[in-house]
Design a protein that fits this description.
The chain is α/β, with parallel strands linked by helices. It has 13 helices and 27 strands. The strands form 8 sheets. A 6-stranded mixed beta sheet has the order 6-3-2-10-23-22, covered by helices on one side. Helix 5 packs antiparallel against helix 6. It starts with a strand and ends in a 9-residue tail after the last helix.
């Protein structure tokens, strides 16, 4: 165990100003920090805001499949925290404990040093990690898709497999390398399969395979249709586009076992493949189990005002919080980016209200619709409940993303324009290796480094980890 590298840090410094710590800079945490800093500035608030996050950027996760497909450069979907949150202090580190009695958050910085942040108000918005299932071989042979390192690895890996297949003399090896299995028919899985099929088709035109062999993409899901959480018309549109691209969509099907040579399906069929991408959904960050307050399937229970019961100074939002759904009594809001973004705004306002400026309000949402980018001019969308498909849906989808992004809009639009007129750069950089992006990690946003300090979850012996982290796999929904 390393010694504490930093003492408790309270940025108010004896000036009479309060200190609010926001843990996590995903959709919920970023919006919380932005809302609170703006309210504090314009309404004469007296709080300093500190944002604790492992990276110095906010990741716009919905566009991550386009990074893997080579359509967007990685920096396009990463928005600088210091540039877009100028009045928020950034502390780089991973939270590994919360002491509610001492009002302090423990963390480990990128160099392995321990630190502590004292707070007057705390917002827990650490998000989610990969949802794992007890399937033999998956943790060893599959890779997830929730962070920049995983997207860069996926892009390099797909390109490498096509290039190796083009030079292979054995048809069986060629076929195995050109088979890509995606598990999970939610947003991420559908978009990744759609974008991936376009990428490999373009690669094969420049690297022809023996005997006219074509790449094969399989999309597996236990549900009876892809995008089961959406309207059936949107689901049918996505299914049709995927099949037109040559994607083998198999519903009611899952993985029984994963091996280095391929994937055994639950119907007994064995698929020879060198690629298994795990997109079955998410589970709350394991940090929530260490808070010591009641959980709902791994999520921290909060009231409609996003307060942790019994601790009016502590708030939680996003995937880490079980927020009552006031439009569906008895249920909790699903783990989606839309809810996280809106809850962050409410959390920021309610923290401000607890400090004496503004009025607090409960979280109540109104469904504005969903968008699914299927690559090229194809998409499925239902803005304000109006189902759209084809180029119109594609335009609405990209317009929505540009409007929703808190930065980099011009750069993203420029990449889209260049992709329409220029071929993609099909080179592998080899910067992220397979062992750098394990599936079973509490930090998918960070690549594992050789000889680097262990992650907080890696330092604890298995028997000391919370029960939810070791055994229970709480359900989560794909974004």
């Amino acid at each position: 165990m390393r010694s504490t590298g930093r003492s408790a840090d309270r940025s108010s410094g004896g000036t009479g100003r309060s200190h609010t710590v926001v843990v996590g800079a995903g959709f919920a945490g970023y919006q919380t920090a932005r809302t609170l800093s703006r309210l504090s500035r314009y309404r004469g608030g007296n709080t300093d805001v500190t944002l604790l996050n492992p990276t110095d950027y906010f990741l716009y996760l919905p566009l991550l499949p386009q990074v893997a497909a080579g359509l967007l450069e990685a920096r396009r979907v990463t928005v600088s925290l210091s540039r877009t949150l100028p009045r928020v202090r950034l502390v780089l580190g991973e939270a590994d404990g919360v002491d509610l009695d001492r009002n302090a958050v423990r963390y480990t910085d990128p160099e392995g040093r321990r630190g502590e942040l004292a707070y007057d108000r705390l917002v827990l918005a650490v998000g989610s990690v990969h949802k794992l299932l007890p399937v033999p071989g998956v943790a060893e042979h599959a890779h997830g898709f929730r962070g920049i390192p995983e997207a860069l690895y996926t892009r390099d890996h797909v390109i490498r497999q096509i290039e190796l297949a083009a030079g292979a003399d054995d048809p069986a090896e060629c076929r195995s390398r050109c088979t890509f299995v995606v598990v999970g028919g939610g947003y991420t899985g559908v978009e990744l399969a759609a974008q991936g099929a376009m990428l490999t088709d373009a690669l094969v035109r420049r690297h022809p395979l023996r005997g006219g062999m074509r790449p094969r993409w399989l999309l597996l899901d236990l549900a009876d249709r892809v995008l089961p959480e959406l309207d059936r018309r949107l689901s049918a549109t996505a299914d049709r586009v995927l099949r037109l691209r040559g994607v083998d969509v198999r519903t009611g099907t899952s993985v029984k076992e994963a091996t280095p040579e391929g994937v055994l399906l639950d119907d007994g069929e064995f698929i020879d493949a060198r690629t298994l991408i795990w997109c079955v959904g998410v589970r709350p960050d394991p940090l929530m189990a260490s808070v010591g307050r009641p959980l709902e399937r791994g999520r921290l229970l909060v009231d409609p005002y996003l307060n942790v019961p019994g601790h009016p100074e502590v708030f939680a939002c996003g995937d880490a919080a079980a927020v009552p759904d006031l439009t569906r009594p008895g249920e909790y809001t699903p783990m989606t980016a839309q809810h996280a973004w809106r809850q962050g705004k409410v959390a920021g306002a309610n923290v401000a209200a607890s400090l004496g400026f503004g009025n607090r309000r409960s979280y109540r949402h109104h469904d504005l619709g969903f968008t699914v980018d299927l690559g090229g001019a194809r998409a499925a969308a239902n803005p304000l409940g109006i189902p759209l498909s084809g180029p119109l849906a594609g335009a609405v989808t990209r317009g929505y993303h540009l409007a929703a992004m808190p930065g980099n809009r011009v750069r993203v639009a420029a990449d889209w324009l260049l992709d329409a007129v220029l071929p993609r750069q099909d080179v592998q950089l080899g910067l992220v290796r397979s062992w750098s992006v394990p599936l079973d990690t509490a930090s998918p946003e960070l690549a594992r480094l050789p000889g680097g300090p262990p992650r907080p979850e890696e330092e604890r012996p298995e028997e000391e980890r919370p029960e939810e982290e070791r055994n229970e796999r709480p359900e989560g929904e794909d974004r």
